[in-house]
Structure formats: C-alpha cells, structure tokens
C-alpha cells in the first residue's frame, strides 16, 4: 500500500510538472493580416535584393497635394508578414523628387503608413510620376536591402487643396491640405502641412503663425468659433474650423513670419 501511494504521488508531481512546463512555453502567434479593404491598391511586386514583396496602397486615387499611403511587406520566401523594416519613399517626376513622410520602422496594424506631396497633376495619364520604394528588410537573415519602382500614370488634379506660393521674401512654399477629408456642418478638426520648395530636399517648415477664418461662398457669412492652426510636428499645422451650415466654403489663411505675410486659402464643400 505504501509503495502504491508513493507511485501515485510521483505520477501526480510528474503530471503537474508537464502541464506547467507546457503552459510556460512562449507561443509567438503570427501577426494578424493587415486590414486594406478600405484602401486603394496602386501596385505590388517583388523587391529585388530585399527578399520581400511590397504592396502599395493609398487612401484614395493619387492626386495633386498630400497623399496618405500605406505599404505592406511580405517575406518572399515564406510569405510571412514583415512588421519591422526601413522603407524610403522616392517619388520622381522628370527626375525631380517631392516632399515625403517616410514610414517608421515598425508597422501599424500590419501596414507601414507614410505620405507624399505630389506637386504636379497628370489627370490624362501622361505617366510622369514614378515611385521607387527602397526596402531594408529587418526580417530576413542579413537584413537585405533593395528597391522597386512602380509607374502610376494618372494623378488627379486637386487645385483647391494644394498651393504653390512665393512669400514676399522670395521663399517658395508648398501648402497642402490634409483634413477634414469629409467636412461636416459644424466644427471640424483642420490640418495642413507646409514644405519649402527647395529641390531635392523639400524640408517641412513649422515656423509660421497663422490667422484663419472661414467664409461661406454662397452668402458671404463668416462664422465665429474658428481656432487658428498652430504647428504640431513635421510641418503639420492643426486647428479647428467652423462650417456652420452645408455648402461651399473658403478657408482663408494668413501665413505670418518675421513681419511678412502671405494670404492664401483652401476651398471645401460639406
């Protein structure tokens, strides 16, 4: 009886140890697939040298001005989603670049978000913009690097949301509307971005103060309650606009720096 009890106790200890060791194992679940159903796929392809496949998405058709883009990477050998990488966005038009916001090295929900400001429209599909993506793949052994080029022939015009201006001191700027994408009646978060037109660097400029009002283009009304935009980061200015009814609106902006100013605007509809 005593031997039987000792054997049973030993079996119990072994069973508990086995299950404990199993439950203690770290299981690395594969990353969830990226949600891209609400995005427009521009192109995809193999990145020579980087052991990766890249897919190029945008929030909408590419257009003049600010474009939010998303890049998805897969390992070309295993088809595993890559969530850590360096990606450089290199747009080119007749050999000239454009302002870009390169993604961070960690994917967000499986996607690498970035942006680019396209400074010329080609609505008839004249094929002057080419987009190169340089990928430094942290996932593969040796962290290989390579690049791929896509040609997107049609860039829509968007003059109400993009301005190329020259300040009184001869500083050349690009002013690009960011949000609201779909303005609503009432108060809206408002955002735009300023880049210096200095090929091929196109640095952002956060040094302006901004005075702003909104004007209803139908009745000429100027509603109160707007909040002047202030610089937040990397050239982005954020404020609040009051569009107190539906219709056509003009967002008037006075850009001020070192006692000089320039008046410009964006037109929106809600």
List the helices and strands and how they pair.
Blueprint: H1 2-24, E1 40-47, E2 52-58, E3 65-75, E4 81-82, E5 85-93, E6 100-101, E7 112-118, E8 129-137, E9 145-151, E10 162-166, E11 172-179, E12 186-196, E13 209-216, E14 227-233, E15 236-243, E16 248-257, E17 260-269
Antiparallel strand pairs: 1-2, 2-3, 3-4, 3-7, 5-8, 6-7, 8-9, 10-11, 11-12, 12-15, 13-16, 14-15, 16-17
Provide a short characterization of the protein structure.
The protein is mostly beta strands and 270 residues long. The chain has one helix at residues 2-24, and strands spanning 40-47, 52-58, 65-75, 81-82, 85-93, 100-101, 112-118, 129-137, 145-151, 162-166, 172-179, 186-196, 209-216, 227-233, 236-243, 248-257, 260-269.
Low-confidence stretches: 1-24
Total helices: the number is: 1
SSE order, as H and E?
HEEEEEEEEEEEEEEEEE
CATH class of the largest domain: Mainly Beta
CATH level-4 homologous superfamily of the largest domain = Macroglobulin (MG2) domain
Comma- or semicolon-separated keywords:
single chain; 270 residues; mainly beta; Immunoglobulin-like; six-stranded antiparallel beta sheet; five-stranded antiparallel beta sheet; elongated; disordered N terminus
């Amino acid at each position: 009886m005593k031997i039987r009890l000792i054997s049973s106790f030993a079996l119990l200890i072994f069973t508990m140890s086995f299950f404990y060791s199993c439950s203690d194992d770290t299981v690395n679940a594969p990353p969830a697939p990226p949600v891209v159903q609400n995005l427009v796929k521009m192109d995809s392809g193999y990145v020579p040298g980087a052991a990766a496949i890249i897919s190029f998405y945008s929030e909408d058709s590419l257009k003049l001005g600010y474009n939010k883009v998303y890049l998805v990477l897969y390992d070309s050998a295993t088809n595993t989603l890559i969530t850590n990488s360096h990606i450089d966005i290199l747009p080119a038009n007749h050999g000239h670049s454009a302002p870009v916001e390169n993604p961070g090295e960690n994917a967000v929900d499986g996607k690498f978000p970035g942006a680019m400001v396209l400074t010329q429209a080609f609505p008839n599909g004249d094929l002057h913009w080419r987009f190169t993506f340089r990928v430094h793949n942290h996932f593969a052994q040796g962290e290989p690097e390579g690049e791929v080029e896509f040609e997107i022939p049609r860039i829509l015009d968007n003059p109400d949301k993009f301005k190329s201006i020259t300040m009184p001191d001869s500083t050349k700027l690009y002013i690009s509307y960011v949000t609201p994408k779909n303005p609503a009646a009432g108060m809206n978060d408002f955002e735009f971005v300023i880049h210096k037109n200095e090929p091929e660097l196109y640095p952002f400029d956060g040094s302006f103060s901004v005075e702003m009002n909104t004007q209803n283009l139908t009745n000429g009304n100027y509603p109160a309650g707007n909040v002047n935009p202030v610089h937040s980061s990397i050239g982005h200015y954020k404020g609040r606009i009051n569009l107190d009814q539906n219709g056509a609106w003009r967002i008037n902006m006075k850009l001020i720096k070192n006692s000089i100013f320039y008046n410009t605007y964006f037109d929106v509809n809600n």
